[in-house]
Amino acid sequence: MASPKLSNASLMLSVVLWGTLLGGIAYSHLVYFPVYLSALPDSSVVVNGPYGLREGVFWGLIHPLLILSLVATLALNWRLRGRRNLVLLSFAVYMAVMVVTSIYFVPELRAFAASPESGVPAAEWLTRGQRWQRLSWLRGATMYACFLPLLFALTKPAVLPLKAAKAEATFAG
């Protein structure tokens, strides 16, 4: 069994990385996307050209780090049912959100960036951008809600209850 310090450290790292993810979500939804999606195709200048913002750098870094930390946290806390179930809940919903993101949100972002070459009317881009933002707010709220089980996992002890520890020692010996 992993040491309580290692179990706690991995869980805390996952909490910090998830919080970093939430910061990116909040910034994107409050500052970035309202400007970017406000007047496509003209507003695509926010992401196009030599001075366009490259937000993919952040997302391309935070997601793999968070996934690795969650996997490590699960491995190091696996025998602690209370923690394991809470971390699994957060991780499962996170992965479901990532699937939806890859199927809908990322392709739409690519289309938004290419909007100047598309020939699609500005009114249609506005409708698509508004729908994307509404759905992304729902996605963001889901990510905020699934942060709570990770926080609750911190309240669970990092050691097996005495009865389970004795049973494990008996089984091992």
What is the percentage of strand-forming residues?
A: under 5%
Q: How far is it from the N-terminal to the C-terminal residue, by CA?
A: 14 Å
Count of discrete domains: 1
Largest sheet: none
Percentage of residues in helical conformation: over 70%
Q: H/E element string?
A: HHHHHH
Radius of gyration: 21 Å
Global structural class: mainly alpha
**Helical element count?**
6
Task: Walk me through the topology.
Blueprint: H1 4-36, H2 56-77, H3 81-113, H4 122-145, H5 147-154, H6 162-172
Helix pairs in contact: 1-2, 1-4, 1-5, 2-3, 3-4, 3-5
Write a short abstract of this structure.
The chain is mainly alpha-helical and 173 residues long. The protein has helices spanning 4-36, 56-77, 81-113, 122-145, 147-154, 162-172.
Protein model, in words:
The protein has 173 residues and is mostly helical. The chain has one domain (4-172). The protein has six helices and no strands. The chain has helices at 4-36, 56-77, 81-113, 122-145, 147-154, 162-172. The radius of gyration is 21 Å and the shape is elongated. The mean pLDDT is 92.
